[in-house]
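Moderator note: this is an archived Q&A kept for reference. The question asked for a predicted structure of one protein chain; the sequence and the answer are reproduced below.
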Amino acid sequence: MPLTPAPVTGLLHPFSLPTSAHFPPSALMSIEIKIRKNEPVDRALRRMKKKLDRENIIKGTRAKRYNEKPCERRRRKEKVMAFTAMLRRRHAE
């Protein structure tokens, strides 16, 4: 599926995905970063990466690369919960 160029009007969003039944609505939500006046592109890219990280878009996309069985998903979530509980116990003291 080819990416089509989107009109760029002061936004750092040069490509948009075509609307299709293959993509869930959450995957079609785009991130927009407005480039400020006299702002370097690398700084705008850094802001975009931080925004992607905060909204867990990259993490979610990587998780959907392959199918995960329900038992694997449960084990992974239990492991995260155990780690979080360990950190809370450690920092509660």
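Archived answer notes: The CA atoms of residues 27 and 48 lie 17 Å apart.
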